[in-house]
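HUMAN: Spend a minute on the protein record below and explain its fold to me.
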Amino acid sequence: MTERPVVKRTARAILLEGDTAPRMILIKRTKPGQAPYWITPGGGMEPEDATVVEALYREVDEELGAKVTDVVPAFVDTVPHPDESAEGAGGAGPAGASAGAGAGAGAGAGAGAGVKVQHFFVCRLASMDLTRRHGPEVDEPCGEYDVVSVPFTREGIASVEVVPPSLRAYLDANIEGVLALLADDLG
């Protein structure tokens, strides 16, 4: 099997607040004519981002006016990357996100097509000021971007349509493991 070129990398936050009953911060996306879906804060690397983690900090600041701490890699998802013209300027959407459901799924999965590598990091919310939000999602929105939080439990995650499905499945199978990534004794 030949390797496919990585044509896009993203950084996304599995962003938790609170210690005793943690909640996960999500963005509810509502686009005209589509059912709502929920995404983790984050987005694509930009040329000014020296690392994927730098992209994470920038994206969380843009989308939430937030600062994060205790950033730990948690999950990597590789999906076929559709043609940029088909994906649109916003990047993540239910069609593109559902490509993570299985190998070869989604548009652009033809031979020689590139892939998008999505890096998911578990991290703690240090502060958030929604009045500081900026960037394309705020300046030129395509639909609505509502910041919500859900209990970081299997029931809480199942209560919303988290995309991509591979992340939803990972979280369902690994709630305890994700919380352990933020334990004081991790090192």
User: Anything to note?
Assistant: The first strand starts at residue 6 and ends at 17. Helices lie at 52-64, 84-87, 94-97, 136-139, 154-158, 165-180.
